[in-house]
Amino acid sequence: MGxxxxxxxxxxxxxxxxPLGVGDDCALLAPGPGMQLAVSxxxxxxxxxxxxxxxxxxxxxxxxxxxxxxxxxxxAKPLAFxxxxxxxxxxxxxxxxxxxxxxxxxxAHGCELVGGDTTRGPLNICITVFGEVxxxxxxxxxxxxxxxxxWVSGTLGDARLALEVFRGTLALPAEAFEQARRRxxxxxxxxxxxxxxxxxASAAVDVSDGLVGDLGHILAAxxxxxxxxxxxxxxxxxxxxxxxxxxxxxxSCALAGGxxxxxxxxxxxxxxxxxxxxxRRSGTPVTRIGRIEAAPGLRIxxxxxxxxxxxxxxxxxxxxxx
Length: 322
Prior knowledge:
Blueprint: H1 3-10, E1 35-45, H2 56-74, E2 77-87, H3 92-108, E3 112-120, E4 124-134, E5 149-153, H4 158-167, H5 174-185, H6 191-196, E6 203-207, H7 211-222, E7 225-229, H8 230-234, H9 247-256, E8 262-267, H10 272-282, E9 286-293, E10 297-301
Parallel strand pairs: 2-3, 7-10
Antiparallel strand pairs: 1-4, 2-4, 5-8, 5-9, 6-8, 7-9
């Protein structure tokens, strides 16, 4: 099977929103009047971002999910995406499952594949996603102010617990492991919540490299500091404490685990009702875990407000092992 046969069979679909999609030298996109185009790219590399044993349908889902999560953090509505795919060979069963997982999530969010590239090489998936957001309404990292409350969506730490099982450093009961593995391999981007938070949140970022590290982006861009309640964050782990009782491990997974793809955002205290309503309308739980402060730096405390001596480090692509 040649390159263009592969594209035609597994990835070519009629474009409904795009004036011109797959098959020409460029795709064409037309955001609505008064809208801004939001664009983000993410690359997934075998052995660095995913294991060779991952179900290809879940991998297709995750490849797009991590990009949609960036749109969510901006408060943008998905429009379309491009796919650049390096494959060691043409495995039709793998391609059928991968494209099924990819398009299932794409269809759920009305996001069209409008172009890309394929080549032979080590398995590598790069997606560029395009969305739209009303002019001036995008959620940015730079809007946090002292006195804002710090919120996070959904659950934290489960993906890291699954990774520790794969590394052989942790054992989980079968049901708990499958739950954690699904969070690791098939995260749900919080697209509806991101759009619902426009006008309520003051700053936002998606949690991809760990809450502490990604919060650092907001603090740096906004020129502020923060205090985080480690135990409030730890309480958002979906795996029961009885299955993974080590408190230090659970705190580490919640605060520095990565691969959560939840939204971490700030909002004025007076906007708390609006934030809770945004969570309700989007069907996404939201939890307060801290506050933004004028004093620079990040302070991590326990439920009683005592500083933690435990250190937490964010994921770094050029330092951390897969």
